[in-house]
Each structure stands twice: as structure tokens, then as C-alpha cells.
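User: C-alpha cells in, sequence out, please.
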């Protein structure tokens, strides 16, 4: 499945790093930057999360709620969020439901070895649940600027 700009964003419900249930519907009336990343506490993912953390208040000021998603567990997300003081929800998608709904579960290639994993991509969703923007090439250390 793939997500199309101008179409409704696929609904989702998952647990965040605190064990809270989070759904897209919880954010009606707010823009959502739904960002997908491969793995907690790896260099690129940490740079991306910290860039969003450092710009979080400015993003909130623009009416944008940040939500991260990876296939790591709630416990892994908690450790990652605590280590870097991440103020936004990180959703555990261990069953790969959300990554598949958004079309970011893809074949990857590392050192000639092919495997399936989460592609680093972000979707900006409007206040009424419509996909406004798709960032396929994320700059991990300047990601907040790409959301503007």
C-alpha cells in the first residue's frame, strides 16, 4: 500500500514509550508530522530524533505534533526516549501494521545483503487527516526544517 498526497492518511492506533494508546484521531485539529525511522538509538535515528526534540517547541508553535514510529518495542522506545529526553510519542509497531499501511516497510540493502526494514520517511498530515507532504529523503540533522 502507498500513501497519496491529498488523500486521507491511514488511521492507526499503537502504544507509545509510556504504554499509552495513541491514535491518529487523537490529533484532529492539529497537524501531525508522522516520522518513520529504522531503529532506536542508532546514529542516524538519534540525530533525527534529537533534531526534532531541539525544534519541538517551535513545531508545536506552528501547530505540528511530532510522532515517531519504528518496529522496536515499547521498552526499547522508553529507553531511547529517556536517554535523549524525547518529548514526543514514539509508537511501537512490532506487528508492522503502521509501516505497511504507509508503505515504508521496504527491501533494503546493506553490504550486499538484502533484508526488509523501515524506510526513513515522514508524512505531514493536515488538521483534518489529509496527507499534505511526503518527505522521502530525510535529512537526519535538519529534519525539522524540512517540515516547514
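Assistant: Sequence out:
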Amino acid at each position: 500500500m502507498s500513501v497519496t498526497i491529498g488523500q486521507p492518511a491511514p488511521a492507526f492506533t499503537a502504544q507509545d514509550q509510556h504504554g499509552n494508546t495513541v491514535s491518529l484521531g487523537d490529533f484532529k485539529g492539529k497537524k501531525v508530522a508522522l516520522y518513520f525511522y529504522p531503529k532506536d538509538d542508532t546514529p542516524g535515528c538519534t540525530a533525527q530524533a534529537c533534531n526534532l526534540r531541539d525544534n519541538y517547541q517551535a513545531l508545536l508553535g506552528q501547530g505540528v505534533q511530532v510522532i515517531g514510529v519504528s518496529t522496536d518495542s515499547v521498552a526499547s522506545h522508553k529507553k531511547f526516549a529517556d536517554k535523549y529526553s524525547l518529548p514526543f510519542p514514539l509508537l511501537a509497531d512490532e506487528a508492522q501494521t503502521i509501516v505497511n499501511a504507509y508503505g515504508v516497510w521496504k527491501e533494503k540493502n546493506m553490504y550486499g545483503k538484502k533484508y526488509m526494514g523501515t524506510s526513513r520517511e515522514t508524512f505531514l498530515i493536515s488538521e483534518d487527516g489529509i496527507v499534505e507532504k511526503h518527505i522521502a529523503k530525510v535529512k537526519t540533522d535538519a529534519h525539522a526544517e524540512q517540515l516547514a
